Amino acid sequence: MTTTSLLSPEQLRSWEDNGFLLVSGLFSGEEVAQIRDHFMAIQREAQTPNSPLRKKYAPLSPEQSGGDVLKEFPRVMHPHNWDELSRRQMLNERVQNVLRDLFGEEPIAAQSMFYFKPMGARGQALHQDNFYLNVRPGTCIAAWLAIDDADEENGGMNVVPGSHKLGVQCPGMADMTQSFTTEEVAVPEGHEAVPARMKAGDVLFFNGSMIHGSTPNVSKDRFRRAFICHYVGDSTVGMNGGYYPLTSFDGQTITREWVEGQLNTCGAEDWATYTKLRQAWERDHNAASGAAIH
Predict the structure, then answer these.
(1) N or C: which end of the chain has fewer CB within 10 A?
(2) Domains of the chain
(3) Three-class DSSP category at 275
(4) What is d(CA 268, CA 127) in angstroms, rounded to the nearest whole number?
């Protein structure tokens, strides 16, 4: 196990107690602006019908979106697989140093994402990342870099302190007028969701079992953009193979065992109930909109 050298004992105690740690100003205004401008350029370029980017990322035009701004500005999934700036950011040494202390071992990168969350966008219902990643043993850690100041008005992050100690919960059906994802985890008794207000350049690190999410962006003129990565520890034996290959911080490609999905969390009866609710919503939504759900 690597000796802690970056985070203070107080920060580590807060991490253990709450399941998250906000590191203020980890990235400069200039660094954040570069990432912001880079992804805004990607979104514009990908609107061009013949752009090669559309094989990786294909937003709809305002006319095609049917009024759903998240179809015009969908999140960019796994850009590190084809975009050099994203790969460098995912493997940034400052992030690595924090993660090394939080994991107590060397971290390995599993995923990168960029969220635009423009004005009028729905949020993401409360959830737990390890419900999806299925890391064994232990859990994943997210590093959520704020590209814009994030608060309640523009749909900033909400966290449920201490919920990581309860393990991964089986979700129910989310309110799809408020959330772009279908799963929602209830706030456990004795806990509450609180806002994690952030400035551009701050990074929120959080345990994969901590319940978190966001509300819609109700601001008039503010994006809530974020560059988000997930990591696992070097001792990871297996996880959801849909996130493979993993990448070490020295650039090596890594694959571990494949762990099967959410029945490990929910049980067959609970998962079947949730699946029926989700499928019913998707049928109704498809009938109403005439568009496929992606």
Answers:
(1) C
(2) 9-288 (2.60.120.620)
(3) helix
(4) 19
Strand (E) or helix (H) holding 35: helix 29-46
Altogether, the residues listed in the chain come to a count of 294
Listed in sequence order, the residues at least 6 apart from 50 whose beta carbon sits closer than 8 Å to its beta carbon are none
Q: What is the pLDDT of residue 268?
A: 64
CB 255 within 8 A of CB 246: yes
Percent of the chain's residues with pLDDT above 90: 85
Question: Torsion-angle region of residue 125: left (phi > 0), alpha (psi -120 to 50) or beta?
Answer: beta
- Tens of pLDDT, residues 90-140: 999 999 999 999 999 999 999 999 999 999 999 999 999 999 999 999 999
Distance in angstroms (rounded) separating the CA atoms of residues 183 and 149: 26
Looking at this protein, which amino acid is placed at residue 96?
Q
Question: What are 243-286's pLDDT values in tens digits?
Answer: 999 999 999 999 999 987 665 677 666 666 667 766 776 676 66
The DSSP letter of residue 12 is: H
DSSP 8-state code for residue 150: B
Count the neighbouring beta carbons within 10 Å of the beta carbon of residue 248: 15
Whole-structure pTM value: 0.91
DSSP string over 156-167: -EEE-TTGGGG-
Burial letters 137-147, b for 16+ CB under 10 A, else e: ebbbbbbbbbb
